[in-house]
Every structure is written in structure tokens, then in C-alpha cells.
């Protein structure tokens, strides 16, 4: 009989899904190049993912809250991942790739957010750190970036669908052992979603953080090209991802020790400061070895920012709307920010080079950090004023 409190299936789900995510994030551009697409066309395909997520995240989050299940929605999305990835990888024309890419991403993009939402709720129920569960996604990402990179180097990028389907199928199998969330409330209605739209602290927080998340997503898209621009090989790109995600896993794993010491917003602001420093350092780099050496900052920036921002958003929204709120947060972080970061970053990279791009990201992160600091001061003063009444 399965122990309903076991977190092992959830950790394995995060491990396997993020392993598939690595394959798409790191190697899809190379696969599309192998298919004969040029840089502009590859950019269009990569922008489809964030665009699809803007619609997919709230849609699946709403269904999850309405039917009070995260597990079933994850299973449905993974089924879509398995079926439509096969069709997506068979496409030969740009139009076909774009259309099937949109369908593929519609099912894929919510899985990470729903998995994190389930992890957050399970962590709260069991009074443990969210990071100790979420770190397994980072471990899966790191392991996959090294192992799959080596495999594809030997057999050829055209076979990337095989490891992708293997990890995807394993992810689907472990979902049957997941412990679902328990929500003792009435099913969500459309008008309930308006509560999120009218939640000013939630909306303002998303607006303030987007400056930082755009810089993060632009780096996701262009760090490989920047390393190549500085004279680095494709192998170095894999090493850079491995170092970055390994430190991210360590930050998630140790979250229980450092995270509760201060308010979540304090950690969000600290991460913003570190993001600013990181991008300015990257902009000043003249050798790809510097980027590899500085990649430990990925854990200190994304690891801290994501853990703290996710926790803060969870506090801002009612439990009934948790999945919807988490997926709106996810759509902003990885959707809107991904589109802006990819499209604007590509123009800057082509016109002015990687150094200029990273200086721009540094100033953008600085603007986000300042706006979040102002937001924190006002929200802190408001809470104190309410307590004084």
C-alpha cells in the first residue's frame, strides 16, 4: 500500500519533467537548425512557447481549481506532451512547426507550474521547505544537460526525440503514485477569478517583478550565443547550464535553513540586487571562462528569487485560487517575460552584440529591484498602519 505522505513520486515527477525541459531549452534550437531553419525562423519557433503559455497557464490552472485536482490535470498535460511531441518533431515546414509547436507548448508549459503548485501545497501541509522538493527539478535539469548532451553529440541531434519521450513517459508513470491536493471548498467559478484581477498587491507585484524576469528569460535564450560569441564551444554551453542549475539545486535544497529568517519580499529584493550585479559582470566578460566561473550566481539569483516570489504570491491569493494564481505568476515569469526577452534580446544581440545586451539586462534588473523595494516599503507601511488602528 502506498504511503500517501510520500514525496518520492512528486520529486521523481519534477526530476523527469525538468529533464525533458532541458532537452527542449538547450537543444531545440540546434535541432531546428538541423531541420534547415535560419536564425529568424528559429526565433519565431522559440517565441511560440512563451506565447502559448500565456493562454495555457491560466486555462489549466482554472480547470485545476474548478475540479480541485492538480494530479489529473498534470496527467492530461503529460499525455498531450507525449502525443503532440511526436507530431511536432515530424513537421518539416515552418508553418507546420509553428502550428504544432503551439499545440505542443499548450500542453507542456503548465506542467512545471502545476508541479510547483503541488509541491508548494504539499510543503505547506507537511510543514517543510518548498525548496527541498523543488530542488529535484533542478537536479533533473542538471543531470539531463550533461548526459543528454553527451548522447546527442555521439548519435546526432536528429534523435533528441528519443530521450525526450523516455523522460516524458517516466514522468507519466510516476503521476499515478502522486498524492493529490485536498481542497475543502466549493468548485471555483468564473467570477471567482475576478478576485485575482482585483487583487492590487498581486497585480502590482507581477508588474514590478517583470523587469527582473525579462532579464532572466533573455539570458536563458542568449547565454549560449553569447558564450559562442566570446569564442566558446557548444560543450561549454552545456557546462555553463550544468554549473548554473547545480547551484540552483543547492539553493533550493538549503531553503529550509535560510528562507524563513526574513520576509519573502526581502529575499526577492536581495535576488534582484544579485541579478543586477550578475548581468553587469557578464557584460564585462571577455572570455567564455568568465561566464562559466560566474554561473554559480544563477543559483543565487533564480533559486532565491523564484522560491521567495512563489511563496509571496502564495500568501497573496486565497487557497481556493492557488493553482490559478500560481499559473498566472508562471505565465508572467515564463510567458510574457519570455516573449519580450526573446524578441527584444534578439534584436539587441544582432545589432549591438552580447556585451550591450547584458548591460541592458543589468539596468533592467536594477529598475526591477528599485520598484520592488518601493513596493515593499509601501506594503510594509500599510500593514503597520492597519495594525496601529
From TrEMBL:
GO molecular function, one term: lactose binding
Record-linked InterPro entries: HcaT-like, MFS_assoc_dom, MFS_trans_sf
One Gene Ontology term, aspect cellular component: plasma membrane
Major subcellular location class: membrane
Residue ranges crossing the lipid bilayer per the database entry: 12-30, 42-61, 73-91, 97-114, 135-153, 159-179, 200-218, 238-258, 265-284, 290-313, 325-345, 357-378
UniProt membrane topology term: Multi-pass membrane protein
Keywords: Cell inner membrane, Cell membrane, Membrane, Transmembrane, Transmembrane helix, Transport
Any single Pfam family the record assigns to this protein: MFS_1_like
Every Major facilitator superfamily associated domain range: 8-358
Location of the protein in the cell: Cell inner membrane
Record flagged with keyword Zinc-finger: no
Descriptive protein name: MFS transporter
Species, as recorded: Virgibacillus halodenitrificans
Amino acid at each position: 500500500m502506498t504511503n500517501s505522505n510520500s514525496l518520492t513520486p512528486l520529486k521523481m515527477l519534477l526530476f523527469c519533467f525538468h529533464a525533458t525541459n532541458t532537452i527542449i531549452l538547450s537543444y531545440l534550437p540546434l535541432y531546428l537548425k538541423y531541420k534547415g531553419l535560419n536564425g529568424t525562423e528559429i526565433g519565431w519557433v522559440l517565441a511560440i512557447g512563451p506565447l502559448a503559455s500565456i493562454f495555457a497557464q491560466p486555462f489549466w490552472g482554472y480547470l485545476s481549481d474548478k475540479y480541485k485536482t492538480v494530479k489529473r490535470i498534470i496527467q492530461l498535460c503529460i499525455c498531450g506532451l507525449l502525443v503532440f511531441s511526436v507530431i511536432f518533431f515530424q513537421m518539416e515546414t515552418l508553418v507546420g512547426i509553428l502550428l504544432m509547436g503551439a499545440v505542443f507548448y499548450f500542453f507542456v508549459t503548465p506542467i512545471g507550474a502545476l508541479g510547483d503548485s503541488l509541491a508548494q501545497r504539499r510543503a505547506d501541509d507537511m510543514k517543510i521547505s518548498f525548496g527541498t522538493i523543488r530542488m529535484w527539478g533542478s537536479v533533473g535539469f542538471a543531470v539531463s544537460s550533461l548526459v543528454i548532451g553527451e548522447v546527442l553529440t555521439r548519435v546526432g541531434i536528429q534523435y533528441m526525440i528519443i530521450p525526450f519521450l523516455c523522460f516524458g513517459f517516466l514522468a507519466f508513470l510516476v503521476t499515478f503514485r502522486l498524492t493529490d491536493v485536498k481542497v475543502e471548498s466549493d468548485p471555483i467559478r468564473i467570477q471567482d477569478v475576478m478576485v485575482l484581477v482585483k487583487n492590487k498587491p498581486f497585480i502590482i507585484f507581477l508588474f514590478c517583478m517583470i523587469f527582473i524576469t525579462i532579464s532572466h528569460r533573455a539570458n536563458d535564450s542568449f547565454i549560449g550565443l553569447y558564450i559562442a560569441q566570446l569564442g566558446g564551444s557548444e560543450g561549454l554551453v552545456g557546462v555553463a547550464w550544468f554549473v548554473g542549475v547545480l547551484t540552483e539545486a543547492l539553493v533550493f535544497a538549503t531553503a529550509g535553513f535560510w528562507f524563513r529568517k526574513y520576509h519573502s519580499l526581502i529575499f526577492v529584493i536581495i535576488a534582484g540586487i544579485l541579478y543586477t550585479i550578475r548581468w553587469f559582470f557578464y557584460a564585462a566578460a571577455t572570455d567564455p571562462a568568465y561566464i562559466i566561473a560566474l554561473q554559480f550566481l544563477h543559483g543565487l539569483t533564480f533559486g532565491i528569487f523564484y522560491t521567495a516570489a512563489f511563496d509571496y504570491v502564495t500568501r497573496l491569493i486565497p487557497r481556493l485560487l492557488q493553482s490559478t494564481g500560481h499559473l498566472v505568476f508562471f505565465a508572467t515569469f515564463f510567458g510574457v517575460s519570455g516573449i519580450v526577452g526573446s524578441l527584444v534580446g534578439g534584436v539587441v544581440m544582432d545589432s549591438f552584440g552580447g556585451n550591450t545586451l547584458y548591460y541592458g539586462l543589468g539596468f533592467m534588473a536594477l529598475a526591477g529591484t528599485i520598484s520592488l523595494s518601493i513596493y515593499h516599503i509601501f506594503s510594509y507601511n500599510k500593514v503597520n498602519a492597519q495594525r496601529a488602528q
